[in-house]
Structure formats: C-alpha cells, structure tokens
Design goal:
Elements lengths: L1 H27 L10 E5 L4 E4 L8 E5 L5 E7 L3 E5 L5 E5 L3 E2 L3 E3 L6 E4 L8 E5 L4 E8 L2 E6 L2 E6 L25
Antiparallel strand pairs: 1-4, 1-7, 2-3, 4-5, 5-6, 8-11, 9-10, 11-12, 12-13
C-alpha cells in the first residue's frame, strides 16, 4: 500500500511539474517571425486583401484601401498575419502587405487634442480629426507622442487606437457592419 501511495504521489508531482513546464514553454514559444504577439503594424499599400484564413485559397472578405492603417497582429503563420483592425474585425493579411511602422488612428467621434507636453493642463497644439491617422513616435509614462503632418503632440496612452498594449480584438467579436473599409 505504501509503495502504491508513493507511486501515486510521484505521478502527481510529475504531472504538476510537466504542467508548469508546458505553461512556461507556451509563454516562451517563438512566433514564425520571432516577433512578439500581440504587436502593431500598419498597411504598406493602398490596397490589401483581407481574407477569412491564412492563404490565397481562403475567401476574400474585403479590400483595405488605406495605406498606413494601424493593425494589431494577434496570430501569425510563416507567411500570414491574423490582424485586428480599428473597427474590431479579425482577418488575415499577407506579411508582405504590412509594415513595422507604428501608426495610430482617432476612433473617437470627435477631434482629439494633441498637447505640447505630456500633461492634461498643457497647451493644445492641434486636434486630430475623427478617423485621422498619426505616426506613433513613442510612449512613456502613460502618454504617447504622435506626428500628424507637420505637427507633433502628446495624447494619453490608449486614447488613440494603436497605443494600448492590450489585445484589441477577441475571436468571435463582430465588426460594425456600417464601417467602410
């Protein structure tokens, strides 16, 4: 009986140990690109096919027609990236159609103020119109510096789409049917 109990305890300890190794291995798992997921990219071209799956044989859902549109990569294969767009859609695009340059977009209904310094009481230097894009320069201490045209300014991190570190889309989330691509 003692031998059987010892074997059972050994098996349980081994299972617990293997389980934690599996979790650590999953966390350390490399992506095909070697880059972290999630991460942000932007569209490299004015026309990019959005597909239902990773391959040209998958159904074409629509064509993005906005160069520089920020996207969040949430999964990848060697050649394809599953991305979340600012409207919440999850689709697949080919890796050659994406660029590592970080862009942001104002998804608020109103213009968003760009401030001279990273403080709410700082002077407003410009407004970023609704659905307007800006280049992300850097984020520090909950504020992000962006450039829109010739103007640079600061916005609170997370106020423009493409500045939050959180995953922006979840599987099964439906996109707004009225949003134009």
């Amino acid at each position: 009986m003692a031998v059987r109990m010892r074997a059972l305890l050994t098996a349980a300890a081994l299972a617990i140990g293997l389980g934690s190794c599996g979790a650590e291995a999953a966390a350390d798992r490399q992506t095909p690109s070697g880059l972290p997921v999630p991460r942000y990219v932007s569209l490299k071209f004015n026309q990019v096919n959005a597909r239902a799956g990773p391959g040209n044989d998958h159904r074409l859902l629509w064509v993005y027609r906005v160069r520089g549109l920020p996207l969040q990569v949430v999964a990848e294969t060697a050649e394809w990236r599953r991305v979340c767009d600012p409207d919440g859609a999850l689709v697949w695009v080919h890796k050659r159609t994406t660029d590592g340059r970080r862009m942001t977009i104002n998804t608020h209904g109103d213009a968003w103020p760009l401030r001279k310094r990273p403080k709410l009481e700082s002077r407003v230097v410009a407004y970023l119109n609704s659905r307007a894009m800006a280049t992300l320069i850097r984020c520090e201490e909950d504020w992000c510096r962006v450039r829109a045209g010739d103007v640079t300014g600061w916005v609170p991190q997370g106020e423009l789409w493409g500045t939050s570190d959180a995953v922006q889309c979840r599987a099964g989330q439906k996109r707004a049917a009225t949003q134009a691509r």
